[in-house]
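R.M. (postdoc): so does anyone remember the format we settled on? I'll just put the structure tokens first.
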């Protein structure tokens, strides 16, 4: 499930005064992204996302809003959240669209 190429090394979520947190993408669309990782986000939170797509030297930067959040039942498990792209430039959108078009389809 998810994009193996978009792992903890390629994603970082930045929150004011809290710094960057590595995350993992589980699903990506043109409107948002499902992330998992150590950071529990709350519904309505905002953050800055740095998305490093494979074979791209420049990160796609987006402002995101948390539209759903599921805390892990155990501290050793990752939290999950759904983020909507609140601000994403045309070039970033084009690069995400190209990545999705070329990504292999996984059947779950």
């Amino acid at each position: 499930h998810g994009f193996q190429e978009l792992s903890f090394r390629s994603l970082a979520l930045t929150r004011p005064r809290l710094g960057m947190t590595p995350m993992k993408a589980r699903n990506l669309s043109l409107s948002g992204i499902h992330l998992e990782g150590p950071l529990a986000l709350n519904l309505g939170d905002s953050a800055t996302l740095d998305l490093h797509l494979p074979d791209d030297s420049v990160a796609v930067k987006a402002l995101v809003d948390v539209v759903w959040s599921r805390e892990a039942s155990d501290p050793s498990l990752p939290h999950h959240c759904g983020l909507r792209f609140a601000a994403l430039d045309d070039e970033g959108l084009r690069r995400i669209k190209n990545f999705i078009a070329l990504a292999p389809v996984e059947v779950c």
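R.M.: ...and that's the designed sequence above, right after the tokens. Also worth knowing: The first strand starts at residue 11 and ends at 15. DSSP finds one helix and seven strands in the chain.
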